[in-house]
Amino acid sequence: MRHLAGRVWWYPHDEDHDNVQGGVAVIADESGSVLVDAGNSPAAARQIRADIEAAGLPAPRRLVYTHHHWDHVWGACAWPDVEVIGHRTGARILDAEARRPWGHRYLREELAANPLLGPSFRARARAMDSWNDFTIVPPHTEFDDALTLPGGIVVRHVGGRHAEDSTVVAVPDSGVLLLGDCFYPPPYHLRKPGDTYDLELIRSLLDENDLGRFDWYVDSHSHPRTGSEVRQLLASLSG
């Protein structure tokens, strides 16, 4: 875990993209820290918890989902004492996901039925060292458009092609905007030819709006970027 800026700490993504472990943010607060995403498994969540304790940060009190995809929510059952916050659309999806018979056998059956699920389901199998006591945790607190948490943290629904419930988390006093996967193309099994990054969504988040401007723009599967680095990325993708 590294200190990013202000009261924001960052547990980085796994450089091996086959493992599909995104970064997790910790927004420190003496009244109880805020997690942004849960890790891709209970094992990952336990490692993050150990790093939070080692860094001397206040224990988490709230957990915000940037969206419902498994690599962002499957660690939540290892955070039993936190309030889980997520968009209403994602909550309905996770209610259904929680009723599925997750386990290695079920993953094999689903993969046989739809080989396009291969990258995701093989990564899920690698992430889970045990299915004992595993549960998917739908949000306890739901929102539609935006929610402001204690300490001035702003949770904002932005949608997009990657996930309809995609949400960003702004920490204005630290100059950090946490993006989740909001501007990514759709997941592999839903992707069509020509699907790519949502450049208009990136531009809208870079432009000055009621969220403000930020020093750091952090998506889940890359290294944190400054505003100038995001503009360079935009230029390369637009070219």
From TrEMBL:
TM stretches of this protein: none
InterPro entries: Metallo-B-lactamas, NDM-1-like, RibonucZ/Hydroxyglut_hydro
Domain (Metallo-beta-lactamase) ranges: 21-221
SUPFAM superfamilies reported in the protein's UniProt record: Metallo-hydrolase/oxidoreductase (SSF56281)
Record-linked Gene3D superfamilies: Ribonuclease Z/Hydroxyacylglutathione hydrolase-like
Pfam families: Lactamase_B (PF00753)
Name the UniProt record assigns to this protein: Glyoxylase, beta-lactamase superfamily II
